């Protein structure tokens, strides 16, 4: 356990946890971020970005964030991405075009590209900035504040409830007592396809492990394949390898297999993504699946959905479209990605 420090300037107080057991040593609400030793330089860099961005905002004056980063000596790069568009499922011409253009098989998805850019390069992307304040406002994210006392007020790990029917040893009777409940798990979905700005996907991947620990959540990463990391396995996630393990395309086969297999119940799903969704025909063995059909075959029960769409404040993040959630229980977070010109 250590407090993260920058060689450039002072950072907000934030404990960096490598060993999961150390989290129990922190008072509830104390700001921390959870990751491996390899994650540390990337997390520090994101924190430096946030400090600079918030300082620039506080001036109330227009600013060029890329220029600020360059002046501070950061090595930047602009990775391209292609904003996706929604597809009309009933378009027979579209289906015919897919039939003609499908030159790969679903089995090809097992052989992922071992070459190409890796995480350490994507972290340099300066095409977009993730406003982490949107995550902090949910009170499900390990907040970093200058005053620890204020952070302690966010008691997000408190699962103790008073059960009036329990036997009370002190009073020797059925007078009720406190007990620890086992809350429903939550789920975090992270789309890392090539249409997502690398600044967004790398940030959400780095934050996902801490969010999962704080929010008692599984993590579902989707790209060329989809993979579900259970809460108990989060410590084994290697964000540096995920781009190679998962790939950066979009798919239906593995996602469909996951959500139509074992029945699962999640309290809240937080989904990061764009218009790409599992209903589209991605390979010859896939078929175009409507949202209605997706909801029918999905075996997961979701109580609440929080959608982080990269460039749309009206539609859902694509890989959350098969969850049957009442509209009243759906929250769409706006303007959490700032596109830098």
Which features would summarize this protein structure in a list?
341 residues, alpha/beta, Rossmann fold, six-stranded mixed beta sheet, three-stranded mixed beta sheet, 10 helices, 13 strands
Quickly give the CATH architecture of the domain at 92-132 and 183-339. Answer: 3-Layer(aba) Sandwich
Number of helices: 10
Strand order of the largest sheet: 9-8-7-10-11-12
Radius of gyration, rounded?
22 Å
Write a structural description.
It is a single chain. The chain has 341 residues and is α/β, with parallel strands linked by helices. The protein has a domain at 92-132 and 183-339: Rossmann fold (3-Layer(aba) Sandwich). 26% of the residues lie in helices and 18% in strands. The chain contains ten helices and 13 strands. It has helices at 40-58, 65-71, 92-101, 119-122, 133-136, 148-152, 198-215, 239-246, 253-259, 291-297, and strands at 2-3, 15-17, 32-34, 128-130, 160-163, 177-180, 186-191, 217-222, 226-229, 264-273, 300-309, 330-332, 337-339. A six-stranded mixed beta sheet has the order 9-8-7-10-11-12, with helices on both faces. A hairpin with a 3-residue loop joins β8 (217-222) and β9. The protein is globular and about 65 Å long. The two termini are 38 Å apart. The model is unreliable at 88-96, 101-115, 145-149 and 151-160 (pLDDT under 50).
Brief characterization of the structure:
The chain is 26% helix and 18% strand. It has ten helices and 13 strands.
Give the topology, please:
Blueprint: E1 2-3, E2 15-17, E3 32-34, H1 40-58, H2 65-71, H3 92-101, H4 119-122, E4 128-130, H5 133-136, H6 148-152, E5 160-163, E6 177-180, E7 186-191, H7 198-215, E8 217-222, E9 226-229, H8 239-246, H9 253-259, E10 264-273, H10 291-297, E11 300-309, E12 330-332, E13 337-339
